[in-house]
Amino acid sequence: MRRLYDSKLVSGRSLIKILSVVMCVVMISGLAGLSGCKFINNITNGLNVAQKPISEAELARLITNAVISDSNVADCYAGIPSSQLDDLSYSMFSQYCSILRKCSQKHGTADSFRILSETEKLEYFQEIDSSGEDFRTIEYYGDMDVVELCYSKDKDKNAPPVRFVISKRSNCTVAGKYIVDSMLAYSYINHYFEMIDDQNADGLEAIIKSAYNSDIYLNSVIHAKADYIVNYYRLKVKTSSPDYELNLFSPTHISYVIPEVFSTDGSKIVSKTVELKLKNDGKYLLDDDIPATIKELRFSREGGSGRLRMGSTYTFDEIRKILGSPMFQTTTSDLVILAYDGMTLRLDADIEENGQWTSGRLVSILLRENNEFTFGEDLYIGMNISELLLVYPMFDECGYTGSFKNGDGEFVLTFEFDEYGNVSNIQLGEAVG
Length: 433
Fold this sequence. Notes:
Blueprint: E1 3-6, H1 38-44, H2 56-68, H3 73-78, H4 90-104, E2 112-115, H5 118-128, E3 144-150, E4 163-167, E5 173-174, H6 176-197, H7 201-208, H8 219-236, E6 245-249, E7 253-262, E8 269-278, E9 284-288, E10 298-301, E11 308-309, E12 313-315, H9 316-323, E13 328-331, E14 335-340, E15 343-351, E16 357-368, E17 373-374, H10 385-391, E18 401-406, E19 409-417, E20 423-430
Antiparallel strand pairs: 1-2, 2-3, 3-4, 4-5, 6-7, 7-8, 8-9, 10-11, 10-17, 12-16, 13-14, 14-15, 15-16, 16-20, 18-19, 19-20
């Protein structure tokens, strides 16, 4: 059943503000915790003078009014009995309401609220919960109701709804643990954006380091990743971080939409989503899809006089001049295969009935077990995964595959590894489809 409440049904208690609220921000690297300053909490505890328990509707009204305006926060906090605050400090309450207030700006000014039905609540929690047994679910925070802010003059009905929860433990209380953990997650992801804005690769490295615990992730590799992310945002992201859109705000799952990002090829403006998810072990998983772009690669032989360009057309003599004579060649109806020791070329060509061909378009190169042939000094057979990630820091995020375009098509670079994590094959071929 839909229950709608006017946010001003009960007048707030007047309170003279005699102090300035001081925010005590705990900056996070490993992020063990976040709390308000103890000194301020001791003072603001005195703001809370209500004793008689209040109803869920009244508690929702007070929180709603605190979200509507910063000037209401102190009065609303004072109107909540200590027994229903769930040990939530004034400073934390104020910060939480401030974030919801910012989320509310797209809609306008809230003038009422409603408590979601059980079906709506279940759907909302399912939206928050991440798939996979490694992730913490909202169920961890106990039985809760969900309150949604309403707007009679909604400026953007397509904007995400603004919601908060009320714990149903001991009748009803502020969901203190839920709010504190929400602020913890919020601080973590915003610290990530802050380090990117400051182009602080060292600080960003400290944030993302916990996600990379395999032996392949040397400190130099993690720093290369951080540096790559900073440069990606500098070159590809048009929107500044204050304008990122907070679409989901909970302790287990935070989602931001970045409205204006250049597409991988730079041809258009798109949006992208960055998410933070809380795992059962208390660690965060930061999901930021950074494209593994690569520059155009050309192929040559050590000491050779030229390089081959993917998609270009070559005669047999031109290839032989650059790479030397092949061990043998094979032709099909429209394909030429040139086999060298440890390397194979494929060219699209018009094959005559006698198997002869005049020229062909280079579409594929497979390099294996031979360092005479090269895509450049940085890539070679036998290099370790860690060495590869120093060249292409995001390749582990996309199956060790990347692509580039030139005037003759799009070409995909892939790697295969032996049991020791060393490169055994390098293939560069035309993209299919």
